[in-house]
Design brief:
Oligomer: single chain
Helix content: 40-55%
Largest sheet: none
Mean pLDDT: 87
Number of domains: 1
Structural class: mainly alpha
Distance between the termini: 28 Å
Number of strands: 0
Radius of gyration: 15 Å
Length: 70
């Protein structure tokens, strides 16, 4: 069996906690989480064509110390 590799700063307990959060959250809680993302200062939400998503992800990853996951 292969050993699971996690991104830097992540481990199995952290992943299990995240999964449990989303499995146990109500639809209203999940919607409120999504809506709160639009209120975060210093970030921009935008719609881009699907075919540009990989290029945008690469740009974000290359221009941050943390990559996409923080």
């Amino acid at each position: 069996m292969n050993k699971t590799e996690f991104p830097q700063g992540w481990d199995e307990p952290k992943v299990k906690k995240l999964i449990a959060h989303y499995e146990n959250a109500s639809e209203n809680e999940l919607a409120a989480e999504d809506e709160a993302l639009f209120e975060v200062s210093g970030q921009t939400t935008m719609v881009i064509p699907d075919n540009l998503v990989p290029a945008v992800r690469d740009l974000i990853f290359k221009n941050t110390n943390e990559g996409i996951i923080s």
